[in-house]
Amino acid sequence: xxxxxxxxxxxxxxxxxxxxxxxxxxxxxxxxxxxxxxxxxxxxxxxxxxxxxxxxxxxxxxxxxxxxxxxxxxxxxxxxxxxxxxxxxxxxxxxxxxxxxxxxxxxxxxxxxxxxxxxxxxxxxxxxxxxxxxxxxxxxxxxxxxxxxxxxxxxxxxxxxxxxxxxxxxxxxxxxxxxxxxxxxxxxxxxxxxxxxxxxxxxxxxxxxxxxxxxxxxxxxxxxxxxxxxxxxxxxxxxxxxxxxxxxxxxxxxxxxxxxxxxxxxxxxxxxxxxxxxxxxxxxxxxxxxxxxxxxxxxxxxxxxxxxxxxxxxxxxxxxxxxxxxxxxxxxxxxx
Length: 336
Description:
Elements: H1 2-22, E1 26-27, E2 30-34, H2 50-56, E3 72-74, E4 79-83, H3 88-100, E5 104-105, E6 110-119, E7 129-137, E8 142-143, E9 156-157, E10 167-169, H4 172-181, H5 191-197, H6 203-206, E11 211-218, H7 226-238, E12 244-248, H8 251-262, E13 267-276, H9 285-289, H10 300-320, H11 322-325
Parallel strand pairs: 1-5, 2-4, 2-6, 6-13, 7-11, 11-12
Antiparallel strand pairs: 3-4, 7-10, 7-13, 8-9
Keywords: Signal
Protein name: Purine nucleoside permease
Signal peptide: 1-23
């Protein structure tokens, strides 16, 4: 009888030990956050997540996280990712739910915020991928109708109290690593995008896609037109940031959520430009917002592929050199 009892106890302890091992949180090395997927995660038209999924999580199980927009995927190398949802509230709520979930240990994790964006034709073109050096919240402050102010003057004024979260400067060393590791990436382009660029007289707009660095402007409003584009640049200068390079909807908000728990030193953000933030000289802003069939920019499929092509070298390098990276970002590589 005692032998049977001892055997049962031993079996129970073994099961408990195995259960404890299974319940250990996943040690996240890099988390990749995208904002939307068009259909399935693989096998159809790619949105922001599909190329990442096909690269890292084809064989991964989907883990539902309460409060998150979509399941989280992780591979055996500690690379995890999820679709966070579009807009500041949507994406930041998902990020917080994932960060606080006990299935994951983010104590040494790096973050790569990814997605599509718009760009001013004076600084970028369709297919570009821009590393974010600064992230600015476009919505925090005071605005008024242009006719209610001085003619030609800005219609935005910062409001006191938002200083700690309206602007984030990302770690320059991590940005430099991202740029360095993606400097030789061969970016994709399309005939449709090449043709569409020629509608704009700007040299930057007509250029072939490239990797850039600059300010990401986060706003829930899809602002369009030269006036609001100029206002975004005004805000970047007002806050002492780099030139406004892309407009998107989530980066600053996601960064604020991560900052409260883990700081900002390990956050990188990349955005691929799929549209210009204003019309060409021969169309009005409303015509640009509602193009006729066949009049869209093109290049979307190539741009979402470019985003993964540019960001993956940093993800892979961090994982393969984890002993060097786990305690913090190494000194930035020297320019050749």
